[in-house]
């Protein structure tokens, strides 16, 4: 008998969702060498990410909570990779 499992969602945390939204909007990018997320310092991309978060919040979060998660995650990133030489 063939058994099937329920498929897990691709993004499991609100932080992961926020990073995905920020990447899609072009507000952050990943260091090619080390994988750290870097803020691109693009105010228009940040605004796009916040608008997308408010319009399409993940299940279980309100629009305001989704926007707050985006802001919190964005504030946790710097504009340089901590492992790359200055």
3D architecture notes:
- The protein is mainly α and 86 residues long.
- It has a single domain (14-75), classed as Arc Repressor Mutant, subunit A.
- It is built from three helices and two strands.
- It has helices at 14-25, 43-55, 63-75, and strands at 28-30, 37-39.
- A two-stranded antiparallel ribbon has the order 1-2.
- Strand 1 and strand 2 form a beta hairpin.
- Helix 1 crosses helix 3 (63-75) and helix 2 (43-55) packs antiparallel against helix 3 (63-75).
- The longest helix is centred in the middle third of the chain and has 13 residues, at 43-55.
- The N and C termini lie far apart (59 Å).
- The mean pLDDT is 89.
Provide key terms for this protein.
86 residues, mainly alpha, Arc Repressor Mutant, subunit A, two-stranded antiparallel ribbon, flat
Average pLDDT taken over every residue: 89
Give me the number of helical elements: 3
Task: Please list the strands of the largest sheet in the order they lie side by side.
Answer: 1-2
Number of strands: 2
What is the number of independent domains?
1
Overall outline: flat
Percent strand equals: 5-15%
Computed structural class: mainly alpha
Helical residues, percent: 40-55%
Run of helices and strands:
HEEHH
Task: Give the topology, please.
Layout: H1 14-25, E1 28-30, E2 37-39, H2 43-55, H3 63-75
Antiparallel strand pairs: 1-2
Helix pairs in contact: 1-2, 1-3, 2-3
């Amino acid at each position: 008998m063939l058994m099937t499992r329920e498929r897990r969602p691709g993004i499991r945390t609100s932080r992961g969702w926020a990073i995905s939204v920020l990447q899609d909007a072009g507000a952050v990018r990943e260091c090619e060498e080390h994988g750290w997320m870097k803020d691109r310092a693009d105010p228009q991309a940040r605004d796009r990410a916040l608008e997308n978060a408010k319009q399409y919040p993940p299940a279980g979060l309100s629009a305001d909570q989704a926007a707050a998660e985006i802001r919190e995650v964005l504030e946790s990133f710097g504009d340089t990779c901590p492992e790359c030489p200055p």
